[in-house]
Design brief:
The complex is a heterodimer. By secondary structure, chain A is mainly beta. Chain A has no helices and eleven strands. In chain A, strands 2, 4, 5, 6, 9, 10 and 11 form a seven-stranded mixed β-sheet that branches. The chains are: A mainly beta, B mainly beta.
Chain lengths: ~120, ~110
């Protein structure tokens, strides 16, 4: 597509529920990133995919968070047993490849998650 | 959409004036830097980048200055317009895919 598409744009859920957030990157971009942005903060790195594999998931806060990218295109961020502290905007970005300084990240509009 | 950064540092400038937004980065090993603009309810949008072997780079109405000695980055916007109102983030990377973002500065353009 023309840009990075994220769905849903807004998600309200109850504490303890499971949520999935979807990212559709720019066609042909092999690198995909998930970031989390809390109110008043800059985006914080969660996970990076190069193709289908998670090359670096060191930013995932705990084992309730998991992400997949089975065909090297669309990615899903999955959060189990949601907690109020998970409330944030989850941003997805993609780039042609993961080489720093070669290709900038293009971000989607984000999925705003609110856990009640 | 949600307003990003309700408690961010704010810079207010008169329309038509020049704006300077500053950023102190953390990692002396960082060698690539980007400025992003984020409007309410939207994702960050690329403005301009600079590599560590440069100290200045110009784009359309924007200039980025890099001072590696004091680990400082600045974004200059010429003839600031109402459409420039947004939150501005600097991001750094030490030669990897992992970008570290600053906390951001809100720019308000006064008519």
């Amino acid at each position: 597509g023309a840009g990075v598409s994220q769905t849903p744009s807004n998600k309200v859920t109850e504490k303890g529920k499971y949520v999935e957030l979807r990212c559709d990157p720019i066609s042909g971009h092999t690198a995909l990133y998930w970031y989390r942005q809390s109110l008043g903060q800059g985006p914080e790195f969660l996970i990076y995919f190069q193709g289908t594999g998670a090359a670096d998931d060191s930013g995932l806060p705990n084992d309730r968070f998991f992400a997949v990218r089975p065909e090297g295109s669309v990615s899903t961020l999955k959060i189990q047993r949601t907690e109020r502290g998970d409330s944030a905007v989850y941003l997805c970005a993609s780039s042609l490849d993961g080489v720093a300084g070669a290709n900038v990240l293009t971000f989607g509009a984000g999925s705003r998650l609110t856990v009640l | 959409g949600e307003s990003v950064g309700l408690h961010l540092p704010t810079l207010s400038v008169q329309e038509g004036d020049n704006s300077i937004i500053n950023c102190a980065y953390s990692n002396s090993a960082s060698d690539y830097f980007i400025w992003y603009k984020q409007e309410s309810g939207k994702g960050p949008q690329f403005i301009i980048d600079i590599r560590s072997n440069m100290d200045k780079r110009q784009g359309q109405r924007v200039t980025v200055l890099l001072n590696k000695t004091v680990k400082h980055l600045s974004l200059q916007i010429a003839a600031t317009q109402p459409g420039d109102s947004a939150v501005y983030f600097c991001a750094e990377t030490p030669g990897t895919y992992k970008y570290i973002f600053g906390t951001g500065t809100r720019l308000k353009v006064l008519a």
